[in-house]
Predict the 3D structure of the following.
Amino acid sequence: MLNIEIDGKQVEVEHGATIIDAADQLGIAIPRFCYHKKLSVAANCRMCLVQVEKFNKPLPACATPVADGMKIFTRSKSAVEAQQSVMEFLLINHPLDCPICDQGGECDLQDIAMAYGAPKSRYTEEKRVVLNKNIGPLVSTDMTRCIQCTRCVRFLKEVGGMMELGLVNRGEHAEITAYVDKSVDSELSGNIIDLCPVGALTSKPFRYTARSWELTRRPSIAPHDGLGSQIEVHIKDGKVLRVLPREKETVNECWLSDRDRFSYEALTVRIG
Ligand code: SF4
Ligand code: FES
């Protein structure tokens, strides 16, 4: 075991743990977009920069393994300035369309911008636009909102088992796309909606039907997948509007099959 200090609090962590693991263990919030505990580490968003004693530049908490005696500062002047700078860069090309974005109210970018961003933008140049992709009947795309965290790409490859999305081009021209204009056919595709930290990937059946704060949430068990996946049923005005996974490490972890995510639509289908 290794003993380290984060923001003045001592914690004992296992060999190989990263700074973000240790901070999560202590309940210390470090902002993040690309990091997800179930996916490989990409360290491409840089939102998790923190100050580490004896290092003269901030380090990404998700990709930095801890060493014995390490002292980490997540809210020091240098850490806060680094986080604010990254936030400013991420917002350069992000549209200011929160009022018409389906992710509004449950958007990591919106929340982290409020908590860690600067109060106003200095950017006056034109923002770039990325064409939307038609990746099938379940997932809607608004690709100008994408921050290229690659969570969707890594999920489909590492958990879905098929590389159905990829990042093409570099820098200003980088964009997420399906391969040679194909749809995403994975039976787990709905999970990329949950993983997307912005409103780039949203649910086609659910979008524009309700705001997240209008929904009543009820725990339930998935009826179709034979696993007993834990789900949460979201209801408005007595009508089921969406189903999301509930985390249960020993059953469905934090994922849900498309069959159980979208079959609620059958509840309101009129026959004849
Ligand atoms: S579409 Fe969403 S999940 Fe995929 S890279 Fe862009 S921001 Fe990340
Ligand atoms: S969360 Fe660490 S670099 Fe993205």
In short: The pocket of iron/sulfur cluster (ligand 1) is lined by residues 146-152, 176, 195-198, 200-201 (CB under 6 Å). The two ends are 65 Å apart (CA to CA).
